[in-house]
Amino acid sequence: MNATATATATATGQARPWAEALRSRQGLTALTVLALLTAVCFAVPLLPLDPTAIDLTARSQAPSARHLFGTDDLGRDYLARVLYGGRVSLLVGTLSMAAATVIGTLVGLVAAVGRPWVDNVLMRLVDFLSSIPWMILVIVASVLLRPGLTTIIIVIGGFSWMTTARLVRADVLSIKERAYVAYAGFLGESPGLVVVRHILPAALPTILVAATSSVSAAMLTEASLSFLGLGIQAPMTSWGCLLQTAQGSLQQQPYLALIPGLLIIVTVMSCNALGNTLRRAVLREAA
Fold first, then answer.
1. pLDDT of amino acid 114
2. What three-state secondary structure class fits 108?
3. Nearest by Cα to 260 from 56, 35, 29, 88
4. Residues 6+ positions from 184 with CB-CB distance below 8 Å
């Protein structure tokens, strides 16, 4: 059996623990919640809801049949604002995760397969960035760059890849010692081909686990920045922005903060639950 066939057989054998993990109660519940939230938020343009329509005659109304989540201090339908805000929050979490995962995977992979001095330089860079409080890094970058959706994605993705880099590096260092990887090199496959065919597929479970954690971390960071007024700017909104604008109405309309707060909690818990499910699958494979 050649190295490619060995790797394929290994991947096929590993598919069962992952499938079982995603079909477990925790994994299935997390996937269902995330899928429903994503579907509802991104399907909202199909509904007759306008998050910017102002009706001063309907200011600060309680939830009713006409306005299921009530209205804010400008008479805007709060259900529409929550759903459109969810689109932004989920988009920030997903794209920031993608950026952090790509950067972290590349850095961890290069550090693990490169020369020792390359590994040393990259890991010292990771240590340096990890030693700086993340909120200071993000706030400084947010102040220097023009506020907006693109900026917040770049800032969060650009300063949250260090953990992924460490995980990928550690996993790739272990994968390099496996027999089929060494056999592929013995057969004359180029180092780049060995990485693409054998090392990256084997490291994919660890990358996926890190990615699920990055989504929840990115959403919490966006909510924190928006709450401080450094994140998403009007007229665009997000769940973090809604929390920030609801501060002045907590006594009269506490649900204005409760609804987006609960949605953030549910989304983050679902991402963490999915990450824990995938992490258990990784540990089961390694056992």
1. 84
2. helix
3. 88
4. 3, 4, 7, 193, 194, 197, 198
**64-73 b/e (C-beta count within 10 Å ≥ 16 → b):** eeebebbbbe
Interatomic CA distance for residues 131 and 147, integer angstroms: 25
CA distances from 264 to 30, 72, 255 (A): 14, 19, 14
Does residue 70 form part of some domain?
Answer: no
- Provide the 10 A C-beta neighbour count for residue 86: 24
CB atoms within 10 A of CB 55: 13
**Among 24, 83, 26, CA closest to 52:** 83
Residue 249 within a domain: yes
- Establish if 63 belongs to a structural domain: no
Query: From the CB of residue 36, how many other CB atoms can be counted at a distance below 10 Å?
Result: 11
Whether the full predicted model's pTM is greater than 0.85, yes or no, is no
Interatomic CA distance for residues 91 and 178, integer angstroms = 38
Domain span at residue 279? Answer: 3-44+76-286
Q: What are the per-10-residue average pLDDT scores of the chain (287 residues)? A: 46 55 75 90 85 80 82 85 90 90 92 89 90 75 75 85 91 84 72 80 84 84 77 79 80 85 89 80 63
Q: For residue 259, what is the domain's CATH number? A: 1.10.3720.10
CA-based nearest residue to 220, from 258, 259, 272: 272
Q: Kindly state whether residue 64 falls inside one of the protein's structural domains.
A: no
The number of CA neighbours under 13 Å toward the Cβ of 72 is 22
In total, how many domains does the chain have?
Answer: 1
